[in-house]
User: Fold these one by one.
Assistant:
Number 1:
Amino acid sequence: MTQPSPELPPEPRESRPFHIEDALAALIMAALCVITFANVLTRYFTNISFAFTEEFSVFLVVVMTFIGAATAFTRGHHLAITFLVDKLPARGRLWQRRFALACGLAMFGVLTWYGALMWWDDFETGLTSPGLGVPQWWYTLSVPVLSALVEFRLLQLLFKRAPA
């Protein structure tokens, strides 16, 4: 287990530890449980499967992944291998943190851009989903929007916790 470095001041506590992501994650998890349980019961008692539930469940899992990424970044709970970083002086660790946040911003920026292109392509072509037959862009819109949410959280971290 790693200990906080004595050379760096402790990171400030969140003034609002509850974010909208917490409520969304709870709602999505509840919806996933209800949908999956209903599908299992229906399949058990009638030998009929609601095929459309898989499509909707996959969409909810994708949304949950992005929300989880935003929350993990905000709380500093992403997996990090800090063996070498811990050996840096305080200023080096600060710059490494800024670099890591900038890399995250770049990656999610690319994901936002290409997600928006994918959404626009689905919108223009009128592609529909196989299970429900709804426009596919309803699902693909979540990629650029939620990637932008993660970018917003990364920007908050970059400017909030870095000393002036």
Number 2:
Amino acid sequence: MVIANTVFSDEKNGSDVISTLSDVQLGATAEKYSQVINRLGQEFENRFCDFGQLEPCVSFISNPFMQVDLTCIAEQLSATFNVDAGQVEIEILTLQNDLHLKAHQDAPNFWCL
């Protein structure tokens, strides 16, 4: 205890020890925050991992006349919405072959028709 009092009372050594203790505390705090941020990143990834799988479906819905693999889109839509893939494929073909809808495919209010 005498040595500790001597070290802290000495101006040169005391400031070095205090700054070292501060660095250690900041390191522990930084590590704690780093763990929290890493955990949040992992939770974010887990929660929103389906967005990558939904992207082709969303792209197709935004433009149903784009060239896509109908079977693949039908399977993704059927898995997402729990419907029959064959029926979804028939609906997509019906939609894509509708002449009235094709004529208005570039309209900004296409889905309001």
Number 3:
Amino acid sequence: MFDFFTALLGEHQLWTMFFSAFLSATVLPGNSEIIFLGLAAKIQLPAHIYFPEDVCWLLFSATIGNGLGSLTTYWLGRWFPSSDMLNPTSKVRWVLAKFQRYGAWTLLLSWLPVVGDLFCAVAGWLRLNSLQALLFIVIGKLCRYLFLLYLVVGYTFW
């Protein structure tokens, strides 16, 4: 099945990865991990090179796309007026408690399903520094994709 999709996409695999990662990180439903794993499984890894060019470009497009998608959710959160949060749900209260305790470091977990989007939106609503938010978001997303890459290629990669 992965062969069909990768053959269908041809030379636009990295753009597909970027847009899938971008849309998956916004409030729209998506699952960029499947595309990432499919594309990573097709990359031939030479024994003497730890990060071949294909792997670097795949990591770059996935991480930047996912990071920019989360930053979009962050900016959407900045548009929420404080009066909308007078009666927050239990999830929002939980996220607010994490931000009060850990601050912007919480955004390292922005890759988590469901609550990751909420982390980004609440960070925007709290008006956290956007560059600091972007840094923590991108680090978290990169670590997630590195872990997924490790799952695909296993010990031969490291």
